Amino acid sequence: MGVSGGADSMALLVVATLCQTRADHTRRFGVISLDHQLQSGTAEVAAAVATIATKLGLEPVITRALDLPETGTGGLEATARVGRLEAFAQGAHTTGAQAVALGHTADDQAEQVLLGLVRGSGPRSLAGIAETTTYGELHHPLHVVRPFLGISRAETEQICHWAGIEPWQDPMNTDPRILRARIRHQVLPGLEQLGPTVRSGLLATAAIAAEDAEYLDAEAHRRYRMLAQRHKATIRFDLQAVRDLPAALGHRVIGRAVTELGGTRPSRERTLAVMELARARAGSSAGPIQLAGGVAARRNRGQNPGEYDTLELFTVPSSRS
């Protein structure tokens, strides 16, 4: 379990301890407590979590200080998230753990949906936080489970109170400079003045978006396997086949090709540019269009002069090589 010392993860620790004491329960639970080193006192919090976990009989208990870069893609919150996942993956790999459990609640889910709306995201982002996620892009594969998505933050606080545990109050959760904190303490309470069903409505939106995204992702995967022709560091598509793709599938197919070539999943703006390139008339620019992570896209000419018949995504040699 990833335990920060806050109410959600400490409640998870308590519930795991109760499960482990049942005679019919065969699973064992360990703890990894991280010190992000982003503010004073966090090393003491991580040590306190380890002490409580050890007293409760959980093992192994790991504490780890994260060495986060001062700057990173996506800002401090995104950098810290990647650092956490890498630490969890390393801890699971070292101990042989099957999964890492995290204490996200229904409140986190509602906040995540609002974050997706603010950022102009599609169904996959509006689906919020999944109950299970496998991260294959880390140094070690990581399987994460989130058993508390069906309960509220108030309930995790009640569990801590029942167990006699005083959870840590992370100052960053109330820092107005952080978007999630503003949504938690300003936006969501303001929306709830509209009526008592705001949170349940956001959770329903996440569930519906998850169903839609699952279907679209599966269909895009099927289309990609049908259409993509790979040769070394190049992936080609029949130009007309790309033109015929519905936009929702086209964005996903192009994104899949970029990641298959080792690039970073492109933004909607970039995949839209590739789709427009595919649909452009003869005589228009054939590219290339630069995408994230050293991948580019261009049209290739067919047999007839002035016509194009393939869309090609390819890796761009590094300027350092």
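The above is record 1. Record 2 follows with the same two-line structure.
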Amino acid sequence: MYYCPDVSKDKAIGPAGRKVGTKSYVSVPITINNKTIGCINVHSNFIDPFNKDELTLLETVTDQIAIAINNAQHAEELKKSQLILSEKIDKLNKKQQLDAITNTILKSVHKSLNVKDIMEHSVNAITRHMPAVENIMIFLVEGDIAILQAHRGFPDWMVKRVREIPYGKGFTWKAISSG
């Protein structure tokens, strides 16, 4: 995870991120089988808005998203993966936020094996249950390009500008490379 509590002290964020009003951000790599396949970027218009519990929550949610993607890519293993997810969810029921987000993601897995649907449900769940999240993007890696899969809160010009991010550019790749 790469957390920048104050972009005025950061060199990884690009001009588009600054222009859209980002004051802080978190970028969490999405990893499956020790391979980073993308990342979730959460932006805020406030300096240092995320506490340790929220950062841990984002990591946990990202882990759940990775599991959901893996399930979608490997439908024949879906029942086994759902059992593992259920066991993990039972252990994580301490947090009401996490429970709500995870249930939304699980519902998307049950409804569809479509990765795009899972991404959209994940974005909706995170923005609904984490008030500090004003903007969010989820990227998946295809070759040497991070491809935007789902987003909320960004203007159209920003979405068009970051739809495909070449290897090594910005904090998205910083998080993916840190995997």
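Helices lie at 15-19, 52-73, 78-91, 96-111, 115-129, 156-162, 170-178.
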